[in-house]
Write a structure and sequence with these properties.
By secondary structure, this protein is of the alpha/beta class. 18% of the residues lie in helices and 38% in strands.
């Protein structure tokens, strides 16, 4: 059986990411690994060794290393073969990098662990949007984080009708709607007031953005098997659909129906903790929630009793 390759992709507007990718390439070659380079980075390292992301599958690739941040991970996850993608190892070069597992300081030690088989795999569901036209449905790209539906004019609010599994729920004026996965619950969804959801809970979350007073629409967590249907109702106002911040579909016209369902694809991530729960809670604490150092003896100031006879 032919030996599988390790693939490399990186953020192309970061010299740090490019240099680190070159160093990782040399490290893996010295370890006797076959290395494939994403087409975009190949000219800067080994010009004739390029491979498109869509050609990388679990059949020919052990895993793919993504050097950058969450945006790079999302681009890689979107570009990979959706049928049977290889696992992703994210290296954080940016600020938060919640999806990333390692960083510039620890990556080479972590790669040794991974080459020795000391890792686990996290499998994450995706969702997909469909544009309904008459009796046909046009499928858009899969989303690992979220599908965002917003007004095409920032100063104008959408009027939408929302159905869940075919049952009417609500009609609202709002700036937009986020439909996120549990993975995406810590992204735009969280900023918009949605809940953080552990990725082991397979759900999709609907979160309105700046809904008009008295609309009644609040964040809702639904089973991943649900179907969310959104119809654009406001005349002469188009919408945009933005998938994982990577793909934008403009000029979605009034009366269009958009359906969101679980995709038949998923993404896989390499994790270095002993179990997925520990890994998630640690990343959540370090990168999203943070901690405040409070002295353990921080008791409230004592108060004097006020005794009075009336």
């Amino acid at each position: 059986m032919e030996k599988k390759a390790i693939s490399l992709a990186c953020r192309m507007d970061s010299e740090r990411a490019i240099k680190l990718t070159k160093d990782i390439f040399e490290f893996l070659i010295k370890k006797g690994e076959i290395v494939h380079l994403e087409t975009r980075i190949a000219p800067k390292i080994l010009p004739h060794n390029g491979m498109d992301l869509k050609e990388m599958t679990a059949e020919n690739t052990k895993f793919i290393i993504s050097a950058g941040g969450d945006g790079t991970v999302l681009r890689v996850a979107s570009g990979l073969s959706q049928r049977n993608p290889p696992p992703i190892l994210g290296i954080n070069i940016g600020s938060i990098g919640f999806l990333d597992e390692t960083n510039e300081r620890t990556v080479f030690n972590d790669l040794i662990k991974i080459l020795n088989g000391e890792f686990i795999i996290e499998t994450c569901s995706k969702i997909a949007a469909y544009i309904v036209r008459e009796s046909d449905e046009i499928k858009l790209n899969n989303a690992l984080n979220e599908i965002l539906i917003v007004s095409s004019k920032s100063s104008k609010v959408l009027l939408v009708s929302v159905k869940i599994n075919g049952t009417y729920l609500n009609r609202s004026y709002l700036d937009g709607i986020i439909i996120s996965t549990s993975v995406g619950s810590t992204a735009y969804n969280l900023s918009a007031g949605g809940a953080i959801v552990d990725p082991s809970v397979d759900i999709m979350e609907l979160t309105p953005i700046n809904s008009y007073a008295r609309s009644g629409l609040k964040p809702i967590i639904l089973p991943i098997s649900s179907e969310i249907e959104i119809q654009l109702l406001r005349p002469r106002l188009n919408a945009k659909i933005i998938i994982d911040g990577q793909r934008t579909f403009k000029k979605i016209q009034p009366n269009t129906i958009i359906k969101i369902r679980k995709s038949n694809s998923n993404s896989k991530f390499i994790r270095l903790s002993k179990d997925l729960s520990t890994n998630y809670i640690n990343r959540l604490r370090k990168k999203i929630i943070g901690t405040v150092r409070v002295p353990l003896d921080d008791s409230p100031e004592s108060e004097e009793e006020f005794n009075s006879n009336f």
